[in-house]
Amino acid sequence: SQTIHQWPATLVQPVGSPLSLECTVEGTSNPNLYWYRQAAGRGLQLLFYSVGIGQISSEVPQNLSASRPQDRQFILSSKKLLLSDSGFYLCAWIDRFNTEAFFGQGTRLTVV
Amino acid sequence: ELKVEQNPLFLSMQEGKNYTIYCNYSTTSDRLYWYRQDPGKSLESLFVLLSNGAVKQEGRLMASLDTKARLSTLHITAAVHDLSATYFCAVDKDDSGTYKYIFGTGTRLKVLA
User: Fold this and answer.
1) What is the mean pLDDT of residues B13-18?
2) CB atoms within 10 A of CB B95
3) Of A46, B33, B45, B68, which one's alpha carbon is 20 to 30 angstroms from that of A102?
């Protein structure tokens, strides 16, 4: 069966520090991968999605970036965090037939 | 601009009552998805509606899809406290037909004992 791993679960980082969140998927190949951010009490904002290795589509211009170095690995990064980057980050995968999405456990990022 | 709007945004209801959450979307997507999120947790898939007229039921929740009206509903029957959560709908295409997974604004449901 397919599983999705996301880490770390919580993170407290100072303003200006770098960020790296990792998401890996098991039990499937060539998944569509997504990064979302959820501000407190708000909806889910699509940040990046990827349909294959090295293919990244950015939805919102910001100081975040994403990479997909391997088929089942999706990384969210920042060189310098801002206070506004705080939120709940969710990784998701969706199979090529675009049925339901499966989410990681999420990373709660607090930038201080 | 792609819009996926839910109504209401907040809902407080008594146990035992019925209510409907609405999801309107602006794309030509013929699929619609419903998710549940408990506070501080990730999202859990509830329903996958894959065609016009699709209706699915699980316990006290029933979801339906009208692709012509670009409307999906999530009906709650005889609400219980355990249903308190935030509910999201999502579509899988934007206005240009590109596959993306876009979520609605969310409906925060609180069921009062």
Assistant:
1) 96
2) 12
3) B68
Query: Which of B25, B34, B88, B100 to mutate to test binding with chain A, by most A CBs within 10 Å of its CB?
Result: B100
Cβ neighbours, 10 Å, residue A70: 11
For residue A46, give the nearest of B42, B43, B100 by CB distance: B100
**CB of A16 closer than 8 Å to CB of A28:** no
A10-13 and A107-111 strand pairing: parallel
- The residues facing A26 across adjacent strands are A3
Residues of B in contact with A90 (CB under 8 A): 42-43
